[in-house]
Amino acid sequence: MRFTDSFPMIEEARATGRGHRFWLEIPKFILVFIVMSFVMQLICGLIEGFILRITQVDETTGMLIMLYEEIIGLVLVLLYCALAERRPLSSMGFVKKGAVIQYLKGIGIGFVLFSAVVLLGTLMGGFTFEGVYGHIQPGILLMFFVGFLFQGMFEEATDRGYFMVSLSRKNPVLAGVLVNSALFALSHGFNPGFGLFPAVNLLLFGLFASVYMLRTGNIWGVGAIHSVWNFVQGNFFGLSVSGMPLMPSVFVFGTTDNALISGGDFGPEGGLPVTIVLAVGIALVMLVPKKRGAERVHCQRLSPADEGGGLRHPLSHGLLRTRAAWARRFRCFPWRLLCLLPIWRRRIFWRGRHDDQVLFLCVRDGVPDVPPITAKLPKRDVEDAVPYEAKFAPIYKTSASHKGGARNSL
What is the CA radius of gyration of the chain? Predict the structure, then answer.
């Protein structure tokens, strides 16, 4: 993945014609965040006052109330983006296609990531296993799980869905990723135990969440990762979540005096194991190629009237990788129809000769002049690229007297 790629969410937000440079977008976000926090506190204060009239609130109930209060924040940020920013929810990553699969995948990734943190921290001497929680209450754990689902999605919708995408409308995508990650880390500055190491790890988590969201093209996966990361940390392994008090959990893990590994008062997110896991996670998201399926390629013969015209390459989302890979895919064609020119400057040209006519794998404005020949091309043979318009130079026919090695002039 490259930050110069085209990302559907950001392109959709740019299409609204709104947005500011970062020196205006950042203060606007801070102001919006302050106003939203004030409204949330006002509404939540009324709700808590009503609950206190009915029953006593212990520490566990207070934690649950705090988690479910994030529903209000989530609604507020969605309304702000839709009404004030005039952005469709799909530009925040709330897309319908593959939502359930992406969310379930995010749940699994979140669990694996923090399990790796605990395993690594235990091996490095930062955590100690102390047994199973004495009074496991499945109902309470389920309520915490649902509460963290809202809490994680609220933070992702605010920091990534709203701020990162809005900042990237008039600024480079890399700037949006870095700035939103930095503000995400600073937003935890009032948590107990916050310091340099927790800030670095929170910055890394923001970077991981940002690149994961850009790569998948939706917010469902990263929202699930964030939610399950917090839930597993506090309610499965029994560790402090960003300096918050301990909560009911399945297992109980203690921490040693080695704050570099255990994270000290801030919890595991202030320790070295989280740094290692997140750094590896970012590298994997950035460097590992996507799993690809099949792509349709349309082959079209150009008439002499098309010579020198502006044509759009059909593989607008990819670049040719190898000559052999393409040759294997077009065995159904007579051998004399297609041959491959060298690939220079990330521009792909096919040329061929049949009855003095030139064949190209391209269409005009997405609509072929003649019925296209369709072939299956595995995406593993195509590299990611930003969609672009290829302009073909004048085309000259190859005489039939030139034997198979003659090249068409492009």
Answer: 27
